[in-house]
User: Which sequence fits this backbone?
């Protein structure tokens, strides 16, 4: 049965169902999850393995290589990237795109088994590898606890309390702290006192190891009870440690008699977190899977307000990032844009279709939007940047079907038919073609929904929203629209047939406007080959002009923050890095427009944004997160910061970086050199950096190997050392105990386990030349012997502290970013010069960074295009059961490049990944319009009209619906012109659609007459 006829017969039921759909849509919208940006699965995991004392080369050969060999057996593996540095191996394992978040836990379990199996092959001294599968966790609420008057220990106690309390808040998954310092009990023997007593450090080592450990003394049966026995003697304070009694011969003495005992912090500090120049402890809070980040944020704010009285006076909890607030602001902004777009579309409908028709289509549009939420919510689609932007993009297309139906009813009314007859007739004629055209529009977006790449997954909700809303728009067009049309549209007082004409005729399209259009179209058909030549010329010019369009991947974020990366020379002590950061903080806080500065020294911040990739541990690195009053001032502030760093911090490499809106990040240009010899790799990297330094628009130039570092190498006198039974192990232990200290016990304080560290006193470890005073234990002599007896001298060497490999091949990466403009423009200048660098045999160059990310995203997208293009073509063929008509329709698709090139060049927008998505989706929009036109042409031919007249009249009859469909789509996207993320896509669609629609309404009839050899009628 005709769906319109069914709804008209069951009017009450249809209206009730319509109201229910609208109400359910409102409820679904309220209950939908909210995010700032769409989620995508980070398919990376880190494998950490410590190998204390080993050089980067030893770590690479003895640990990293063994683990990589085992991990490569993983069938789900995509690629491996490893960083081997002194004492530490970090392997980043990336899984193939086809494995989604639901399958990854199983993959991580298999990875753990592979890593565990490889442990027996690791060298003695290497610790057990740890697999960090939470590398992709996002800590949407990022806070910092700070207070000038409080120690780290006092901050830690309050932070622990807050962590315990906030973990109980709904939707909180876990809380991670960083920036805290490890406390320890230091025992620093005084050499002079040891000598006076005639004892050595070794005499107290054994006793310290045994003290304060939990021991099982057992239980004893006493009557009917089984009672535990627990003797006293535990250490409860630092004073207890100092009062420990030792014996030497017949003499007894306290530990305080021979050593200074104090409580302090382990040095050097692993990482430092600061807020506005004050040291602090950061807390990152993540949301449970499927949780509502807005609801969690509100609950956290409420609980923190309740706990405010528990935070000591002078201690503050400041916000680095609060995703809930950002989400609310972003959602409000997009909802505002959506409402603006909706108003624009409805106003256009009212102006061009009249009050009743405009209100009718507006009601159907509102119903379609709200009804879409009913299906999108169970699908797991959240309200975020892409899904709400997709609704704005879809707005114009959602009215296309309804416009055709309403226009058909209005035409029928003008021809003297009743509203019911007109509604049933237009749905009977258009339902199937409109369904096919809608399916084609959905297929045009489908490649986005099937791409497993991060960029595709990031944009997947675009397809979900378009698919659901467009299909629902067809359903409402053939059901609710004719029903409301019969109820709201009125028959004109007099039919508009021209006098003297028999039958209905095309009188509705016989006014001045349509006569001008028809005469122009007839002229184009008459001079058809000239028309084709002009269109071909415009097309060729557009292809040529497209070469001047800027290229990019994803645009930078508009959040009111930017980053400053700060690199001291590799090997710099973290205290020196912190000192440089303090100077930079003071300068930044003095700048107008900057409100707060958060600094993380020794590593990157927690992943507080999904698109943010934290830097791994490095004492020479710091990152500052700068809050600003107005995001529009960020380019200016970054420029000033870069200039200041270049002038005042010449020993460091520092530069400002914007946050990204999508996958990608800093270091956009990355040439990578592969080869076996580290020295050759460094030389190739240096040549590439020279090329970059010669380009004024390049900044942040560095390599991932960083500089070589100094290494002091005591030369072991093998003959003398062998006689004393001393090897590298004994010598290394003695040196470490002298300077950094040696853990010799544990101090238990509540739930804290503090290490007891023995090291030399401050004067004895103040300078490296104190190494000569070190005493090394000789197992042969049963005593300590001077350092100089087993060491012949000291040498200073330079070594690579960091070594990188990719898929087990040694490689070095050179990084840089543009000062202004797009990375692609800078790459275009650098690429020929870098590729001209001569490569020795066995060495190769590959390009990573933004160009590789973009290629991978485009490739993943392109993989699905042939399938869906074939489906679109088959649908067109099946709609018309013809080959020539689909050919005519598809000939219109390339015409969109004319508008796309013009639009991007006029607005100075780059052809980004989002613009590519818009370009692909254009095909569906154009095909949809062309199908409506050809369907009307077939209907007129079927009524027996002359072929030439049918071509001209069908074009005229579909001029308003096609023009309205294109116009509502184009003008509905106007709010997106002001959104950095969607701007290039909006420009691509609007200009491409408008130009192509105009050319379609002329070109398609011309192509049709050429293919079908139709000539103008005689006379």
Assistant:
């Amino acid at each position: 049965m005709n769906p319109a006829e069914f709804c008209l017969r069951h009017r009450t039921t249809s209206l009730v169902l319509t109201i229910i759909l609208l109400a359910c849509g409102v409820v679904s919208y309220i209950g939908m999850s909210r995010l700032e940006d769409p989620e995508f699965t980070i398919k990376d995991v880190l494998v950490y393995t410590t190998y204390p004392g080993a050089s980067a080369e030893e770590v690479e050969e003895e640990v990293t290589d063994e683990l990589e060999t085992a991990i490569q057996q993983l069938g789900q593996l995509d690629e491996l990237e490893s960083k081997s540095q002194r004492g530490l191996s970090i392997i980043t394992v990336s899984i193939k795109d086809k494995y989604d978040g639901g399958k990854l836990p199983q993959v991580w379990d298999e990875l753990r088994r592979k890593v565990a199996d490889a442990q027996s092959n690791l060298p003695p001294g290497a610790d057990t590898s740890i697999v960090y599968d939470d590398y992709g966790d996002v800590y949407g609420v990022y806070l910092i606890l700070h207070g000038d008057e409080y120690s780290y220990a006092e901050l830690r106690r309050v932070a622990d309390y807050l962590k315990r309390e906030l973990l109980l808040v709904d939707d909180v998954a876990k809380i991670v702290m960083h920036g805290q310092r490890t406390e320890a009990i230091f025992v620093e023997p005084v050499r002079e006192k040891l000598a006076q007593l005639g004892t050595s450090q070794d005499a107290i080592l054994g006793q310290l190891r045994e003290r304060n450990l939990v021991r099982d003394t057992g239980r004893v049966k006493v009557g009917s009870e089984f009672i535990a026995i627990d003797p006293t003697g535990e250490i409860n304070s630092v004073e207890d440690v100092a009062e420990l009694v030792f014996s030497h011969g017949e003499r007894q003495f306290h530990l305080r008699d021979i050593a200074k005992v104090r409580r302090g912090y382990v040095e050097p500090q692993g990482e430092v977190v600061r807020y506005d120049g004050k040291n602090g402890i950061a807390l990152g809070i993540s949301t449970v899977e499927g949780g509502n980040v807005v609801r969690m944020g509100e609950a956290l704010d409420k609980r923190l307000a309740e706990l405010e009285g528990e935070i000591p006076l002078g201690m503050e909890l400041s916000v680095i990032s609060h995703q809930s607030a950002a989400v609310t602001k972003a959602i409000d902004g997009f909802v505002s844009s959506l409402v603006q777009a909706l108003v624009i579309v409805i106003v256009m409908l009212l102006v061009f279709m009249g009050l009743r028709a405009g209100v009718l289509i507006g009601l159907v549009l509102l119903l379609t939007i709200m009804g879409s939420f009913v299906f999108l919510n169970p699908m797991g689609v959240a309200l975020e940047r892409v899904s709400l932007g997709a609704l704005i993009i879809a707005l114009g297309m959602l009215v296309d079907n309804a416009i055709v139906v309403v226009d058909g009813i209005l035409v029928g009314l003008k021809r003297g038919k009743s509203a019911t007859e007109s509604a049933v007739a237009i749905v009977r004629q258009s339902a199937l073609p409109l369904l096919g055209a809608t399916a084609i529009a959905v297929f045009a977006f489908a490649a986005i929904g099937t791409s497993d790449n991060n960029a595709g997954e990031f944009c997947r909700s675009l397809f979900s929203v378009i698919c659901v809303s467009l299909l629902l728009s067809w359903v409402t067009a053939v059901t609710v629209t004719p029903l409301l049309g019969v109820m709201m549209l009125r028959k004109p007082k007099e039919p508009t047939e021209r006098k003297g004409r028999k039958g209905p005729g095309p009188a509705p399209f016989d006014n001045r406007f349509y006569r001008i259009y028809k005469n122009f179209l007839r002229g184009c058909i008459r001079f058809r080959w000239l028309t084709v030549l002009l269109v071909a010329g415009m097309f060729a010019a557009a292809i040529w002009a497209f070469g001047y369009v800027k290229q990019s991947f994803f645009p930078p974020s508009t959040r009111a923050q930017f980053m400053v990366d700060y690199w001291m020379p590799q090997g710099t002590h973290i205290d020196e890095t912190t000192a440089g950061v303090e100077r930079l903080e003071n300068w930044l806080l003095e700048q107008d427009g900057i409100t707060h500065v958060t600094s993380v020294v020794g590593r990157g911040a927690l992943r507080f944004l999904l698109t943010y990739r934290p830097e791994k541990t490095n004492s020479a690195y710091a990152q500052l997160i700068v809050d600003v009053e107005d995001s529009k001032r960020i380019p200016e502030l970054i420029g000033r910061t870069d200039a200041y760093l270049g002038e005042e911090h010449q020993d460091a490499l520092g530069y400002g970086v914007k946050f990204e809106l999508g996958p990608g990040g800093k270091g956009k240009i990355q040439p990578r050199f592969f080869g076996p010899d580290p020295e050759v790799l460094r030389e190739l990297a240096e040549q590439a950096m020279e090329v970059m330094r010669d380009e004024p628009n390049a900044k942040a130039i560095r390599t991932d190997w960083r500089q070589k570092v100094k290494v002091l190498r005591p030369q072991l006198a093998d003959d003398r050392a062998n006689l004393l039974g001393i090897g590298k192990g004994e010598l290394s232990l003695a040196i470490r105990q002298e300077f950094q200290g040696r853990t010799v016990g544990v101090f238990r304080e509540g739930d804290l386990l503090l290490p007891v560290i023995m090291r030399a006193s401050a004067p004895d470890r103040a300078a490296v030349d104190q190494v000569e005073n070190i005493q090394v234990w000789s197992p042969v002599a049963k005593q300590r012997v001077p350092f100089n007896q087993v060491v012949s001298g000291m040498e200073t060497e330079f070594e690579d502290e960091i070594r990188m490999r990719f898929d087990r091949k040694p490689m070095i990466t050179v990084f840089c970013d543009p000062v202004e403009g797009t990375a692609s423009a800078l790459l275009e200048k650098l690429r020929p010069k870098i590729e001209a660098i001569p490569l020795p045999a066995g060495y190769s160059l590959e390009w990573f960074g933004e160009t590789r990310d973009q290629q991978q995203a485009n490739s993943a997208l392109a993989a699905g295009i042939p399938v869906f293009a074939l489906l679109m073509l088959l649908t067109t063929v099946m709609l018309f059961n013809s080959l020539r008509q689909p050919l005519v329709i598809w000939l219109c698709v390339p015409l969109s490049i004319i508008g796309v090139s013009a639009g991007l060049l006029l607005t100075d927008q780059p052809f980004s990944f989002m613009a590519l998505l818009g370009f692909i989706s254009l095909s569906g929009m154009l095909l949809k319009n062309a199908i409506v036109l050809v369907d009307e042409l077939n209907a007129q031919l079927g009524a027996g009209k002359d072929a030439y007249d049918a071509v001209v009249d069908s074009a005229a009859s579909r001029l308003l619906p096609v023009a309205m469909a294109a116009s509502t789509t184009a003008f509905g996207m106007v709010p997106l012109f002001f959104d950095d993320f969607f701007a290039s896509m909006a420009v691509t669609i609007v200009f491409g659609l408008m130009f192509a629609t105009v050319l379609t309404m002329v070109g398609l009839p011309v192509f049709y007459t050429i293919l079908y050899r139709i000539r103008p009628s005689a006379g």
